[in-house]
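Title: [Solved] IS3 family transposase 3D structure

Original question kept below for reference.
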Amino acid sequence: MDIPEATYHYHIKLMRQEDPDVEWKALILETFEQHKGRYGYRRIHAELRVQGHIINHKKVQRIMKNLGLKCVKFIRKSRYKSYKGTVGKVAKNLLNRRFRTPYSLQKLVTDVTEFKCTDDEKLYLSPIMDLYNGEIIGFSMSKRPSLDFVLDSLKQVLPIIQKRAEYRTTIHSDQGWHYQHNTWVRTLRQNRIFQSMSRKATCADNAAMENFFSLLKQEMYYGEQLISYETLQKKIKEYINYYNNVRIKQKLAGMSPVNYRKHASQLAA
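Solution (posted by the thread starter after getting help):
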């Protein structure tokens, strides 16, 4: 073989040794499959750290590469436009892209997005997010983007605001006709909630909600076959529960939105 004898015996010895990463491979594969392929190596590493395992992120990256584990993203544009001109009151942009807040329920964002279903049906989703921890605190779904459908998600969060908010709440949206409507504006005023709106045709003014829509569609909708309205409705409910309670965020110290809120409240107590 034209190699030194010592080198030959060294490689034979290595071949006879068990894989030192066999347990790590099993653990990483289990975590990857548990989250349905939605986690890349950074989030896998954070999840393992939360579980108490000590492992370098570069090792996680190498093992995932060797196992062929890759978080695959699908891109298929699907965007709902609710802007119909000035049909009511257009509020000032009070949020002004200041998406961070140390206080729960101080800054909320909302929007409407659409999904295609079988039988030429569509599903419309209206979530409301707390920028404190990125938690979806209320959401509604409908086959039509009506005013009542948007008001339904708002009515879900009003008791939460009244019970837990320490500071006056501001809710931010785009200039969609729902949010200019007198009923929406009056409901906010009656509950002492400030209204804020993005500038016209400026998605970045509501980037936090746009980012959630992107995650939602990439992780459970894009690249999949169209399904019925009822089945998609169930999948979205399951995903939002997963997003709130299980899916970790690195900016939340490796915790899910709900766990971060509970942890913060325990520290405050």
